[in-house]
Amino acid sequence: MKVISAASILAKTARDAEMRRLHERFPQYGFDEHKGYATPRHLRALRRYGVCEVYRRSFAPVRALLERAG
Question: What is the pTM (predicted TM-score) of this model?
Answer without folding.
Answer: 0.79
